Amino acid sequence: MEDIFKPLSLTIKQLLGNTDALYQIPRYQRPYSWSDDQLEKLWEDLMEAYHADQNYFLGSVITAKPEEKSSYLDVVDGQQRLTTLVIMLCVYRDLFPNINSDIEDPESVDSDIIKDSIKYKDKFERLRLRTHSNHETDFQNLVIEEKSSIKNRRPYKKQVRIEEEPKYKFMNTAAFFNEKLDEIGEDEAGRFINYLFNKVKIIRIDCQSVNFAIKLFQVLNARGLDLSNSDLIKSYLIGKIHAKYESDQELKKQKEDQFMDDWKYCEQVAIDTEESLNELFVMYEYYLLGDNPRQSLYEELVILFKDRDPNSVISDFKAFVTRYRDDVYNRKDALMFGFWYIKWSMYWRTIVLTALHNGYPEYEEFLSVFRRYYYINWIAGNTLSKIKQTSFNIIKWLKENRPLPYIRKELENNMLDVSNNTMNRAIEALNYDLYNEPWCKPLLYLIEYNQQDNPKYLPIGDKSIHVEHVIPVGYEKTKEWRYVEEIEGIEDWINSGANLTLLSGPKNIDARNYGLDQKMIAYDGRGFHRNDDDKVTSFLITQKIVNDYKSNTYQKSWTVKAINDRWNWFCDEAQGILEIDLSANKRNKLAESITEKSSAASI
């Protein structure tokens, strides 16, 4: 009985020189992905072993007989190292066409041996890439064809990062080895290739079926060695296709082709949304489970997919991620913009996607209710542990199509619960010091969106947008603001909603600690050194201050009444957005804690 798998210890000369040494990267594999980090590590390890004249173990390659009749072996694991070796040999061939030609030694590697390691009998490529037809064409044109490998120049780093364009990685790897080999020179390169072919070994594990090879691959890599969860999930589902349609080769090929088309579509969605496929699968896992995972992503999904058809799984996942791209990532309105500032991104995105994917009938209304729940918890200072279980409960409620009044009531009860005290803590947090809170800028953004008909997204990471103090933090250091010291309790209001607004770029620099008149020039958009336009700041919450100044609402001064009115306006805006009762906050006005003399003071 033939062994189900056979491990072979091979030198590189045997790996790429034996009569059975013909390999193909099957369609279900991801494209070649090595960049400088992996190349440098390989080169340094090889050179260290070479200089110490030690044998070197390069790892394992798992192969399988392909489903169709072929002289080539499918590479189930080890394609990155194998592809890298072939590219290195192509650079050797083109850079040193006469390598070791004058050395008479049976272990010496000359150009004929190198060429035979690239093409068997100068006819059959030792390595074929079938991940995509254009990948094979690029590999041929950039690497395999004689004299082509040394023509490559380093691509831009951003090109190397494009996962679905391995041609840039082919170019980068070829240029890398061209630099390294040119640096050590032909004589040293000749000695190194002798070492590489004769003293570097690899374990090739030949399996009788692709299905078993994939299972072995999963076992050997179950701890995540150089693999992502999405790779393991793909190989698991491909293996299920092979096992399910073992008796019908034509149907098996059709199902695998269909699966790979859908998989590649999902990979493109990940690129379009600047997301990793792993994180998309995490959201899908949360959606399917509706509960906190107990095991790794791969282990949980294997259980969930066990009794499901692989093509049905990838089709549903495709619909799931398409919803994410079209209706979450690409949605441009104030309601969705507000979600992107929330720190519990994996949870809110899964919940929104669950509502979409499940066709929840009250979707738009649900978004407002749900966003409010997360913001109030955030403002109250709650951590992930406080909202995690409720988040999974929301997923269950959505999948059960619980009516919105039920969900609203459950969330409201959660926030009003005495043990949580979430609502009261949020109200208190909004009362004074906002400036040093991580939610300060997002809340001001939401208030800004509330002023606009067609708002544009304001990135939270945009360092050119600043939270501006009307009364400067260092007011006692500037003569125009020194009188503020006379206002009892003013220090509690410097970082409050009464004294904060938004400014962008140089406007914030212009504003600094200057008096109100000069600040208005900066707020107005003209700046101290610009007089070529009269446009006001692009932020409407700041423009409101400018308009009040220009209309002489507060005698062109920042009076106590101006501070009070701004505070009440802020409370009204926050109250409307968060649907939270801030009437107690509004009653706690600055005017109640100051003297009549202070009330008459102005800036």
Polypeptide structure, described:
There is one protein chain. The protein is an alpha/beta fold and 603 residues long. It folds into 4 domains: 5-220, no CATH class; 228-282 and 294-325, no CATH class; 331-429, no CATH class; 440-600, no CATH class. Helices cover 54% and strands 8% of the residues. The chain has a 6-stranded mixed β-sheet, sandwiched between helices. A two-stranded antiparallel sheet has the order 5-6. The chain has a two-stranded antiparallel ribbon with strand order 9-10. α3 (79-95) crosses α7 (167-199), α5 (133-144) packs across α7 and α11 (277-289) packs across α12. The termini are far apart.
How do you describe this structure in short?
The chain is α/β, with parallel strands linked by helices and 603 residues long.
Report the radius of gyration as a whole number of Å. Answer: 33 Å
Q: Termini distance?
A: 96 Å
Strand order of the largest sheet: 1-8-3-4-2-7
Shape: elongated
What fraction strand? Answer: 5-15%
State the share of residues found in helices, binned by percent.
Answer: 40-55%
How many domain regions? 4
Main sheet overview: 6 strands, mixed
Q: Mean pLDDT score, rounded?
A: 88
Number of DSSP E strands: 10
Low-confidence stretches: 526-536, 591-603
User: How many DSSP H or I helices?
Assistant: 26
Q: Name the structural class.
A: alpha/beta
